Amino acid sequence: MKHILKSTLALFLFPAAMFAQDLKGTNLIPFDPNVKKGTLKNGITYYIRKNAKPENKVDLRLLVNAGSVLENDDQQGLAHFMEHMNFNGTKRFPKNQLVDYLQSIGVKFGQHLNAYTSFDETVYFLPIPSDNPEKLEKGFQIIEDWAFNANLTPEEIDKERGVVLEEYRLGLGADKRMEDKYIPKMMHNSQYANRLPIGKKEILENFKYDKLVSFYKDWYRPDLISVIVVGDIDVAQMEQKIKDHFSKYQNPANEKPRKSFDVPNHKETFVAIESDKEAAQTQVQLLYKDYGLRKIKKTINDLKDELVEVLFTTMLNNRLNELVNSPTPPFTYGFTYHGETFARNKQAFQSFAMIDENKQLEALKVLVSENERVKKFGFTAGEFERAKKEVLTRSESQYKDRDKSESENFVWECQSNFLQQEPMPGIEWSYPAVQKMLPSVKLTEVNALIKDFLKEDNRVVVITAPEKEGLKKVTEQEVLAAIKVNSAELKPYEDKAVAKSLLRNPIKEGSIVKKETNDKIGATTLTLSNGAKVTYKKTDFKNDEILLEAVSFGGTNLYTNEEMKKTMFANNGLTEAGFSGLNQNDIEKFMSDKIASVTPYISNATEGFRGNATPKDLEYAFQMIHAYFTDLNFDAAAFDGYKQKQSNFYQNLISQPNFYFQQELYTYLNKENPRWNGFIPTAEKWKEADYQLAYNKYKERFANAGDFEFFFVGNVDDTIMENLAKKYIASLASNDNRETTKDLGYRFLKGDLKKVVNKGKDPKSNVSIMFYGDTTYNADEAYLLKAAGDILTIKLTEVIREQESGVYTVNARGSMNKVPNGSYNFNINFPCGPENTEKLITATLGELNKIIANGPTQVDLDKFKQAELLEYKKQMKENRYWMANFTKCYTNGSKPEDILDMEAKINGVTVAQVQEVAKKYLAKDKTIGVLMPE
């Protein structure tokens, strides 16, 4: 939850940014001088920014300030349908030529090339290579065609109906059924209540062609369009391209007014209590809607108000997080914020929680009580100071990486400026502003904020829950009673003292006994006095990021079958107790103004750590590693709290048809595996979970630091790394034992198998086709199997999505593992209509058999190669890619410098090689799993 809150904090803070230099309240917020913003005579707004990360790439984005809220009654769903049609053919790229061309230059459909439609807008994404003038020109032709030259022929419209209906089918289920009932109350008497972007099935099936054409002509027009260009480009050239491609278009003579729709206020408190037999979780949402429209931030004073709101949200959510971390958590997670509802122009003070199905009213009462506690007593000085430091720390980190930010981040800022009129002064202005303004914000200003939020009218409570025997459905009267809090019973929040250190025991520093360098990849390996190894690579990809991982062979495969079952679901709860005598709340308070995180894990074949830190806070990450090795707390109450939260999350997940399908399919495949314990910790499994045993086994797994290798990638300093490694890792206990992985011999069922699972009331199916088995691990074959999966995905998208209109999405993926045993795995997955399952399975296997018989076409192989080369060149300048390479090489026993040969490896893949690996592994027995409705 803490990570969610910090992401939310960044979202609130930064595209809106803060105030610098001249801080007079009535002054206008400046505009980022690094961005070229302009408007053509016809009204098209454009944004251009040069940014060389990633290199030789440009992000093009087309924004249309029109979405489903503008549809007529007989057009419901056509804003989204129009988005589909733009990928289905344009003037310059008819039929499948658009997707085909983009795949040929390495742009993946769905992953890179994409779009979305919401109530108020439609947005198209087109990232393309910028190192070739022809590709750039084609990119501008595509976004021009999207805006003004779509092919809306009856034939193509009818063909796309099936794909859109498959996407509509995907959204069916408990959440959709409940949403249809509560949105009319949440968005009372507004256009939004009746214009969900996916639309209505009967309209999608039967609308007349002219309805789509008229929507396109009415709303895809210059004054509602923006073009964004950010990347490794020349700004002047891009501005000229925008003028060349977009200046000639004119707005309609009698253009429709682009209305902004309000959400009317209401005196009542609306209560929606919805339940469904397939609902997976119990949730409560409380909204206090603003009376007026969303305020547009224009002046320094406006941004000061936003900073006050950020501090308020940070402190309130820190309190909710403390409750989540308590031995008796009132909810699995909870958070509160002030922000948009479904409507762009309507904001609300909103509290949300995922809760125990039997404690709906109690959890709602806690959310209301915490709001009222702030209203009555305010926040403490200690909370306020920590929140200011946290805000400043996040701002500082973004400032330090200002020259390393991905182009996509700047694109989103431009989009918010166009669609929501969010200011964008730029981080160079914002960070000094935060530094200057934070000291001037008074606690009284923050405390006063909630008085404007809380109200007894214009309020909505939404509860969604499973419907099952023995679970009493709460009533509207009970809900209304629960939100009436007697403030006289409330006590002030107690702000406990902040810990002084993450460690409580003395450390006897070790030493470095060997230092080796790998000049090919710029990595250094330190062998420590206790036998542990520390490998680090200094990069300049990010100024304020260091990633860390540690790994050792062993894992739960060294447990007996009984130990495995008793610890499987308990293992992830071990860290809930904290370390060094500090509980989770103590640790989070101490770390509130620091950026460092470490999490231990135990998998079936390995154990280790994953984490990250800024260079400034790296020592705290080392301290966490040391504490997790030496001083993990044992706290049965904390573990009970963890069990309660996990039970809340998982107890009804099996009611979801797709989850039930996966559980049943893998239970069937594991029928000869005595260690199989399912995906879900049921009440019975929690009873057999043994916290003490899990704790003891954890101590056993982390007893020997000499059996670990630690990896660090990022902006590291040699001297600092050596000093921290000596102090915190070389000082850990070790012995001469060096464990290896253990293959227990358990495997999936073998044979040509089929498993049909019936679950769910909606006409939805899911198909999983699996090939698997033992093999001797071979890195070249592993890559070729991946290639086969990516190529088959391209072909299936073309055939069963575009030609058959049978699916919305399809994916094939191949891989190999070396530990704990050599194995291969190849999966093909797609959702579809129940009536089409057999036909689509046959078509899918038919395309696979073509690859087995003849190999892929050279065209499809070249598409795969282009995408891989683009991705490889981008990833080679990302810390996470290098980290994944280090850990993979550790596991597989390969050389880290092999990463340098990937371009040659990609270019060297041939049709014959892919055919050979497909023939070897995919012409054998297979398992077909099919989910069918009840």
How would you briefly describe this protein structure?
This protein has 934 residues and is an alpha+beta fold.
Plain-language structure description:
α4 packs parallel to α9. The protein has four domains: 225 residues, Metalloenzyme, LuxS/M16 peptidase-like (Cytochrome Bc1 Complex, Chain A, domain 1), CATH 3.30.830.10; 196 residues, Cytochrome Bc1 Complex, Chain A, domain 1 (2-Layer Sandwich); 218 residues, Cytochrome Bc1 Complex, Chain A, domain 1 (2-Layer Sandwich), CATH 3.30.830; 180 residues, Metalloenzyme, LuxS/M16 peptidase-like (Cytochrome Bc1 Complex, Chain A, domain 1, 2-Layer Sandwich), CATH 3.30.830. Helices cover 42% and strands 18% of the residues. A hairpin with a 6-residue loop joins β9 and β10. The protein is built from 30 helices and 23 strands. Strands 12-13-14-18-15-17-16 form a seven-stranded mixed sheet, sandwiched between helices. A six-stranded mixed sheet has the order 1-2-6-3-5-4, sandwiched between helices. The protein has 934 residues and is an alpha+beta fold.
